[in-house]
Input
Amino acid sequence: MPRRRRGWIDRACYHVTHRCHKREFLFKFAKYREIYLRELWEMKQRFKVDVLDYMITSNHVHLLLTARHGDDISKALQFLHGAVGQKYNALKKRQGAFWSDRFHATRIQNGDHLRRCLFYIDLNMIRAGAVEHPEEWEHCAIHELLGKRERYRIINMQRLLQCLDISSEKAFRSWYLKTLAEKLACISHNREGYWSEAIAIGDQDWLEMAAMEAGIKRYTVQNDKNAYINFMAGKN
Output
């Protein structure tokens, strides 16, 4: 069956995930994760795409992205992941695929659903058992979100605040630290796969609108913990 063409929506937020080829740990060493960070910063300079969050693990990456023109996200990702693969292969004197097939993009409703997605991304390495606190993992956005990284910042904080419906950076950090402490106190190591498998996540009315905007007529909806998870027919 041919793949469905992605319908990028202007100004929408997308949680993008991409795994290394055959789930190999190609980002096992920090110097290779640094390659990704540098190219992510370069992508931000070249394309009109706002990065709202990111996490580089040992074998896959998470990005939270939005753009005034949705199609710019696809172009930016082609540049980013193409450059990372080429630089890795050149450094390792290696040939062949770096990434496993195509990335997956889940559209996320602004507000509460986006807040939940933010923590799903930021707690990734805790669920994996690699660290005990998100700040222990260097190659992620938490250091920017907490205002502890000043140089080469990648996150568009003002755009993130707009999408989260939070009034200021001070209010954001107060909310973020409080919520982080609550989640760390009762974290589950069970993977919530719908964040990187669904086509869209939001409340029911919003999902109906999202399906219509994407031109999708047939889909199923699953309700989980007050989030409607939309596994639309014909997904990638």
